[in-house]
Amino acid sequence: MTLEERLAEADAAYHKLLTGRSVSEVVDQNGERVRYTPANAFRLSAYIAELKNQLGRSTGSGPMRFWGR
């Protein structure tokens, strides 16, 4: 499965999870199945951000960094 396919699957699972359709399950980068519930939606969001990062896409989220003098 390509990174693009994994990202599409994870995005679809996240949408289902947030809209209350069902518990979502995706295959992670190690080929393991991971089941997500509303209680750990943050983990799925982090996985999506990781895939986007690997694809060189900006997620537009994450901690802000301040550069001091």
How is the topology of this model organized?
Layout: H1 3-18, E1 24-27, E2 33-36, H2 41-54
Antiparallel strand pairs: 1-2
Helix pairs in contact: 1-2
Keyword list:
GpW_sf, two-stranded antiparallel sheet, alpha+beta, GpW, 69 residues, Head-to-tail joining protein W, gpW, GpW family head-tail joining protein, 2 helices
Provide an overview of this structure.
- This protein has 69 residues and is an alpha+beta fold.
- It has one domain: Head-to-tail joining protein W (Head-to-tail joining protein W, gpW, 2-Layer Sandwich).
- The chain is built from two helices and two strands, in the order H-E-E-H.
- Strands 1-2 form a two-stranded antiparallel ribbon.
- Helix 1 runs antiparallel to helix 2.
- It is globular.
- The termini are far apart.
